[in-house]
Amino acid sequence: MEESPTPVLDVLLHPIRWRIVQRVLGREVTTTDLKRDLPDIPTTTLYRHVAALIDAGYLTVVRERKIRGTTERTLSLDQTRVGRIDEREARAMTPEQHRQAFLLMLTRLAADFDRVVDSGDLYPRMNQLGYSQLALYLSSEDMATFRDRFAELIEPYLAESPGKDRVVLSIFSLPDS
User: Fold this and answer.
1) Tens digit of pLDDT per residue, the chain (177 long)?
2) How far apart are CA 63 and CA 55, in angstroms?
3) At what angle are helices 95-118 and 15-24 packed, to 10 degrees?
4) Largest Cα–Cα distance in the chain?
5) Is the dihedral of CA 141, 147, 153, 155 positive or negative?
6) CB of 24 within 8 A of CB of 30?
7) What is the three-class DSSP state of 78?
8) pTM over 0.85
9) Minimal CA–CA distance to 12: which of 109, 92, 88, 81?
10) Long-range contacts of 122-128 (CB under 8 A, 24+ apart)
11) What is the DSSP letter of 122?
């Protein structure tokens, strides 16, 4: 079978799978955690989409344990892989696929923001909230250097550790015409 020119989108451009990825992002979770965090998704549907993400290599089973005759899996996600669309794949995408991917990201970002605002926990955590927009002047080479240096900067903060809160960082870059 021929490989799809857009394998990331084939797997991730589905609202349920994207929500699962967002819940696992930066942490280890069990399938029980996912059922609790995503109560509107039927269990069989959730398991089917988790399996698709595991088969595609986005989710990894880091532990399994037997609980009352069933196996509970603990899942992890390679953050460097998710949401990264290489140039070959980006060129294979249609303009509509780019719009759909971008809107999916914006929709989840807005939903996450609403969740934080509605939680009643906004003001005690204001130092972890930020949103801004900057104009940078970069050549193609500058952009590649910027991405490499940014990846080096954030790498130490990608692993969960005691005493640290999970903060989701969303970054968009758009060429100005």
Assistant:
1) 445 555 666 777 788 998 898 888 878 999 999 999 999 999 999 999 999 999 888 899 999 998 888 888 999 887 666 556 677 878 888 888 888 878 877 877 887 788 888 888 778 878 888 888 889 999 999 999 998 999 899 999 988 889 998 888 888 787 886
2) 16
3) 50
4) 59
5) negative
6) no
7) coil
8) no
9) 81
10) 125/165, 128/165, 128/167
11) T
154-160: long-range contacts (C-beta < 8 A, 24 or more apart)? 158/26, 158/79, 158/80, 160/26, 160/27, 160/28
- Would you state the structure tokens that stand for residue 134, as one six-digit string? 């900057």
Contacts of 57 (CB under 8 A, 6+ apart): 78, 81
What tokens does 11 get? 């797997």
Take residue 107 and report the two structure tokens written for it.
């929709």
List the structure tokens of 32: 């029980």
Report the C-alpha gap between 100 and 102 in whole angstroms.
6
Q: Write out the two tokens for 2.
A: 């021929």
